[in-house]
Amino acid sequence: MKPPKFTHDQMIQEREKYMSSEELKLYDMGWRKTYNDHWTDGKTGRQELDHMPIKDEPQRIYFSIPSTDEELKQRQMKGGLKYKENEEKRRTLQDRTRTILRTRLKDSMISELLGVPEEDLELLGLHDADFGTVMTFGQTMTGTKGSAKCAEFIRDTAGEKPVNTQEISVFTDADKELCRKLAARMGINDEEP
After folding, report:
1. Does the global pTM surpass 0.90?
2. What are phi and psi of 165, to 5 degrees?
């Protein structure tokens, strides 16, 4: 839910109504106080609790308001670095998952997971297989036993996912007739591309 927007007449515009030096500083930065004691920058019209003065402690709200362009740039830079750090963590999780899928398993473990005798693993091509191969084989086996979800997973993973395409004609017959008339008027052969 978006916070309510303030209209121009809800904001206190007269500089003399701002008493403290902190309030004047905010006023000079473009922030305006509203008649219900909220602060807004007048651009986004945002109403946030950290911009609401709390009785005799208006200094509490100034921690989150950048006082200079330099401070704003610093905050933006810190935000960018934090985003990059989170992105690296996400990539690390992807790498971990890929590592797990590439992990080689012992034949005894593969046999136990799939319920197949160890002697048959060589025949199935699963001797010393990785986790991803075992998982794919298990999904294939479950799909052959009637699980539509598993069969769909195998088909899609193999790259045979059906694509629903519909042919849409942009030109109607009236449009085509108009183009023919225009071509005739300009002396262009309508059989040319």
Report:
1. no
2. -115, 145
Phi/psi of residue 39, nearest 5 degrees: -110, 140
User: Residue 188, CB half-sphere, CA atoms under 13 Å: how many?
Assistant: 10
Question: Any bridge partners for residue 54, and if so which?
Answer: 57
* Distances, alpha carbon 107 to alpha carbons 31, 34, 66, 166, in Å: 69, 72, 62, 48
Q: Find out whether 89 and 109 touch, Cβ atoms under 8 Å.
A: no
Q: Which residue reads 């085509």 in tokens?
A: 176
Tokens (6 digits) for 45: 């019209």
Provide the residue count of the chain.
193
| Beta-ladder partners of 39 | 33
Which structure tokens are listed for 50?
A: 């950290």
Query: pLDDT for 131-149, tens place per residue?
Result: 889 999 988 888 888 888 8
Contact 48, 83 (CB under 8 A): no
Q: Which amino acid is at 24?
A: L
- Separation of alpha carbons 182 and 193, rounded Å: 14
